[in-house]
Amino acid sequence: MKFLVIVTQRQAPPPEIMPVLVDATAQWTASAKKGGKFDVIYSIAGQPGGLGIVNVNSLEELNELVSGHPMTPFANVQTLPLSDIDHGLKTLREQVKKMSGQTGPK
Q1: Model confidence, pTM
Q2: Which of 34, 41, 69, 86 lies 20 to 30 angstroms, CA to CA, from 62?
Q3: Which domain holds residue 37?
């Protein structure tokens, strides 16, 4: 299962722990990249936060991965399930056909 994970700052961490958090975040990101669970990881330009596309086998695995991010206590975390675009378009076409067949002129 693929998810878009968006992490944005909710509140600023205390300045005295920022150096430790930045180092821990760099380590977490390096580990996440090596772990093969992320397709991509990006920072958000000009803002404290980042996003990535993650591949996991369960919601529990997603929770463990996100919960391990060092900035999580100071962040809003949004997870959005992703679906293959070709499958989504096929489903949309089928729904449009059904709707036009039921409500369209005969």
Answers
A1: 0.81
A2: 86
A3: 2-103
